[in-house]
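Quick one: structure tokens for this chain, please?
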Amino acid sequence: MSETSELLTAAPAISGRRRSRVLAGAAAGCVVGLTAVYFGFVWTRAGQAFEFDVLKGAPALLDTPPVLRARSWLAYLTEYAMAAVVVLVLVVSLLRRRPALALLGAAVIVVTAGVDRVLVRWVFTRPPLVVDPMSRENSFPSGHVAMAMSALLGLLIVVPYAWRGATALVGSVFVLGIAEMTMTVGWHRLSDTLGGNLLALGVACAGLAVLIRRSGVWMPLPSRRVLSVLLAVIPLLGYVVWTIVAAVGPVSDALEHQSALFHAAGAAATVFSTLIVVAFLLLLARIEPARSTRRRADA
């Protein structure tokens, strides 16, 4: 969609202060959630014991089909893949003649990766509260999950609002299973995947809040924005329901079978990743960042 056609289907640019506050609040909520997950799982004996029990049921050391598929899929999640997504974000934004979106979309991916490395290596630690021979080093938050989710959120920021639903659905095929896969191969714990998702969402919301505070927003026509959101939100929520229903059996047997506990935790990681995408789509549902040079009215 060209920028001209976008202007024909959007109201004049208005102040983004109110919506910027909503996004800033969401970013702050992600920080609170990230902190709560870290201290709840990593700095308590009960949290560490639970995650150790979960990982004991992981088939990480076995060459089963799920493990082989997870290893194969995760092998593509490299710095080169992320660089390719950054290039895609830049190309889409520049084709729309939106350099500010190009910078923001790329920054979401790069900053998320950088903050994750800082947190894992120099900020967060893992105290030895339980005997855990599988991994004694801190792995919170998951860089794999954070990178994958930030790539999808960065793309959702730069594509036209009419394309967001389709972009979310296609991107979800590649992203939503990453959290469970990292647990399947024994690289990360459940808390790591939750933290990685919250980190990516927090960075995306913070960056978008700054942009629309400066540039204002367009308001897409109601029919357009509702259709774009529903195109993705309804299938994604359906996937959440299906995942939960499929995990009901493992949850009921969790106290007796460690593998069942692992599958239930994996389902929880997948559901959380899906809800992160849904939450970001809903935050974006009523806004399209305007050009900073456009005249704005107060909202």
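The mean pLDDT is 86.
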